[in-house]
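Before our next group meeting I need something from you. Please put the record directly below this note.
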Amino acid sequence: PCVRHEREAYLDIAGPNVRARIDLREEPDSHGPRGGEPRVSMLFIDSSHERDAVMAAFGAWRDALEPGAAVAFHDYDHADYPGVREAIIALGLSGQQSGGLFVWRAP
């Protein structure tokens, strides 16, 4: 993971109420939730773009998702990152593509 210098400017756009609910991690997405954390209602996966890494990230978080939670996978269908699409196919997820994202909802 890397922290980009423009991150704070983007978070400011969200406003203080939304920003208070956003938890950005500076650790690998495959670490999953920390013990005792509440369930997740929205998860954004922007992994290394390799098939196995995307699958590991999703697997690490899957049990922490609230019913109906949205999971957005970044760089879906990007020509340079075929691993994202490959992972979604291998996981058997059905969802919706929106721009460069694939969004799946937990049952």
